[in-house]
Amino acid sequence: MPFLSRLFVKTGILYLLVTFIAGAVMLSLEALGHGIPPIIGIEHGHAGFVGWLVNTVIGIAYWLLPLNRARFPAAQGRYPERMALASYVLLNAGLIVRLLCEPWYVLHPNAAASILLLASAVLQVGGIAAFAWIGWQRLYPPPLRPEV
Predict the structure, then answer these.
(1) Are 75 and 81 spatial neighbours (Cβ–Cβ below 8 Å)?
(2) Stated pTM of the model
(3) What span, in angstroms and rounded, lies between the C-alpha atoms of 70 and 10?
(4) DSSP symbol at 127
(5) How far is CA 1 from CA 6, 36, 90, 124, 127, in A?
């Protein structure tokens, strides 16, 4: 399995662990009669979905999508290394900024939190767009060879 595939999958596993620990803490607090702000549950779900599921799916997709040697000869058909790394950094930086800034914005609305929340959305969309471009190129049919 290529390095970036392993990086995405390992990051996904870390988010899975963190999400389950956070869920256990939230459940324990509620069982002990301590309320938690609803935004924390939303962040918990987002960490599980984007952090675990999306990272894992992208990592597996980078590994298993068909190679396109005509499009990416330098990478033996896989993907441009820098763009795949950019998709990882953008997606995960955006997720971390969101996990930190959305509760801040919801609990204490202010311009700085609003700007950071917007930046997190742009970063995550950029990461997914980079992945989508690479995935599309990997699925693009190879050029037809002329019959001899």
Answers:
(1) yes
(2) 0.86
(3) 30
(4) H
(5) 7, 40, 22, 24, 21
Helix residue ranges per DSSP H, the chain = 3-31, 38-46, 55-64, 81-107, 111-139
Helix (H, G, I), strand (E, B) or coil at 78: coil
Cβ within 8 Å of residue 37, ≥6 positions away: 103, 106, 107
CA atoms within a 13 Å half-sphere pointing along the CA-CB vector of 145: 3
Measure the CA–CA gap between 56 and 69, rounded to whole angstroms: 24
Both tokens of 103, joined, read: 């509760």
Structure-token pair, residue 49? 């979905």
Q: Which amino acid is at 72?
A: F
Question: Do residues 112 and 41 make contact, with C-beta atoms less than 8 angstroms apart?
Answer: no
Domain map (residue ranges) of the chain: 3-139
Cβ within 8 Å of residue 105, ≥6 positions away: 113, 114, 116, 117
User: For residue range 67-96, what is the model confidence (pLDDT) as tens digits?
Assistant: 777 777 777 767 788 999 999 999 999 999
Span 111-148, pLDDT tens digits: 999 999 999 999 999 999 999 998 888 777 655 566 65
